C-alpha cells in the first residue's frame, strides 16, 4: 500500500486517510478524471500537471490503462476508450429512477423543444442521472454523470428544500458558495430564503446563476413515502425565454411529468435509501 500524503492536484487539503487507504488507486482514478469533454486528448505532460504527479508516475498509470484497454495512445496523445464505461456500467444498470424518468424527459423535450433532466443530491452537488436534449443545444454540455454545485442550480434548490433543517444547516456551514456568474447567490441567509421559497412553492426557477445565459425551472420528485430524493427540470437559453415565460411554458407540463413519474415510482417501491440518494 502507498500511504503518501501528497496534496491533491486541485490544491485542497487532503482529508485524513485511514490505514486502509490505497493512494495508488486514488491516483489512478485521478488520471482517468483528468480527461474531459473539452479536452478528450492529453499529452503525458498535461496529465502529469493536472494530477500533480511526476511524468514517470503518470506514464506508469497511463500505460497500465493502455494495457487494460481503458486508454488509447496515438502520436503521444492519450484518450479514453469506450471500454472505460465498464467502470460505471454496473452501477448505472442498477438504477431505477433514470429508467423510469427517461420517457417523461423525452416527452417534455419534444413538447417544449428544450432540454429536460433528472438529478439527485450527492453531498454538496447535484448529479445528473437522466437527460433528454431539445432541438436547441444548450451551452453547458451537461451529460449523465455531470456534477454541479447545488446552491446555484434549480435542481439543487428543490433538493436542498427536501432536507431537514439540521441537514440544511450543515450544508450551509460547509458549502463553498463561490460566484459562478454575477447573479449567483453567495449569501447563506439569502440562499436559505430561496430554499424556503422552493419548499413552499414546490418548485424553483434559477436565472443565470449557474451559467450566463442559462435559465431553468425544477420540481422535486418524491418517493412513495413522500421524501424528496430527486428532481426534474427544464432548461433554456435566457435569450429564448425570460424567467416568467419559462415558468408559464414549462411549470405545468413539468409538474404533470413529475406526478406521472411519482406514480411509477410508487409501483416499483423505490426507496430514498436507494444508491442514488
Automatic annotation (TrEMBL):
<keyword id="KW-0804">Transcription</keyword>
<dbReference type="InterPro" id="IPR012794">
    <property type="entry name" value="PcaR_PcaU"/>
</dbReference>
<dbReference type="InterPro" id="IPR014757">
    <property type="entry name" value="Tscrpt_reg_IclR_C"/>
</dbReference>
<dbReference type="GO" id="GO:0045892">
    <property type="term" value="P:negative regulation of DNA-templated transcription"/>
</dbReference>
<dbReference type="InterPro" id="IPR005471">
    <property type="entry name" value="Tscrpt_reg_IclR_N"/>
</dbReference>
<dbReference type="GO" id="GO:0046278">
    <property type="term" value="P:3,4-dihydroxybenzoate metabolic process"/>
</dbReference>
<keyword id="KW-0805">Transcription regulation</keyword>
<dbReference type="GO" id="GO:0045893">
    <property type="term" value="P:positive regulation of DNA-templated transcription"/>
</dbReference>
<dbReference type="GO" id="GO:0003700">
    <property type="term" value="F:DNA-binding transcription factor activity"/>
</dbReference>
<feature type="domain" description="HTH iclR-type">
    <location>
        <begin position="22"/>
        <end position="82"/>
    </location>
</feature>
<dbReference type="InterPro" id="IPR036388">
    <property type="entry name" value="WH-like_DNA-bd_sf"/>
</dbReference>
<dbReference type="Pfam" id="PF09339">
    <property type="entry name" value="HTH_IclR"/>
</dbReference>
<protein>
    <submittedName>
        <fullName>IclR family pca regulon transcriptional regulator</fullName>
    </submittedName>
</protein>
<keyword id="KW-0238">DNA-binding</keyword>
<dbReference type="GO" id="GO:0003677">
    <property type="term" value="F:DNA binding"/>
</dbReference>
<feature type="domain" description="IclR-ED">
    <location>
        <begin position="83"/>
        <end position="267"/>
    </location>
</feature>
<dbReference type="Pfam" id="PF01614">
    <property type="entry name" value="IclR_C"/>
</dbReference>
<dbReference type="InterPro" id="IPR036390">
    <property type="entry name" value="WH_DNA-bd_sf"/>
</dbReference>
<dbReference type="InterPro" id="IPR050707">
    <property type="entry name" value="HTH_MetabolicPath_Reg"/>
</dbReference>
<dbReference type="InterPro" id="IPR029016">
    <property type="entry name" value="GAF-like_dom_sf"/>
</dbReference>
